[in-house]
User: Fold this.
Amino acid sequence: LGILSVLLPVYTKEVLHAGAETFGLLMSATAAGELAGSFLVGAVAWPWTLGRSIAAAQSATGLSLLALAGLPGAPATGAILAVMHFIQSHWSWQMASLRFLAMEHTDAVI
Assistant:
């Protein structure tokens, strides 16, 4: 999602034909999605393995980007960004837990 964050101001100006206010609302949508996903990660036991979780999150993000290309409009863009960050919040948590697991078991194969 890094490149999307870099290109979001350009997307807002060139595709949505909007300004700083719309850009701020889109950034707020990403933060809301990330926050909601973070709460869910802490509340739900995840049944999938790390590899399956990463694959699912990346696939869902790719589909969201395709939807972003097909549905230009500020409300649709905000909703898609919120969903993308909601999905990615779980993946970020999984990667952080993998790093801690690796530090605890330096001689084990993960």
The chain has four helices and no strands.
